[in-house]
Design goal:
alpha/beta; single chain; five-stranded parallel sheet; two-stranded antiparallel sheet
Amino acid sequence: MSGSEVVQVDEVPVKAAWTAVAGNKRAVLIDVWTRAEWQFVGVPDLSSAGKRAVLVEWQSNPDQRVADDFRERLQAELEAIGATQDDDLYFICRSGARSLNAARVMAAAGYRRCHNVSEGFEGPLGPSRKRDVAGWKVSGFPWTQS
């Protein structure tokens, strides 16, 4: 990638992300939550598509700064599954904020097809002050919890 080339990160709704990841063997879903969130809230379940989400923490606690080695850890995970800089990478977090930042970091590192799952896993707060209006879980896509 040349220094003047700008790589855009597009926003995609949950349904489009599910369709792409389930239907394209080269597409990868990357969950950038924390270990505690994966354990207590859940993770997307891609087993029906013969896949698993790649789990790499953007920060070890939502209130902490970004992990210095995020890019390197994610690159190692992607290499381990045979993903390349030309594969579609879909980033997800709770509501789409952390995942957008993570996608931008990887786009700047040369990954050309980075997408942010704009609604996230739980979506935004609704009128009831609960995360029950959008997102992976509310949309009925498969997920699991440990």
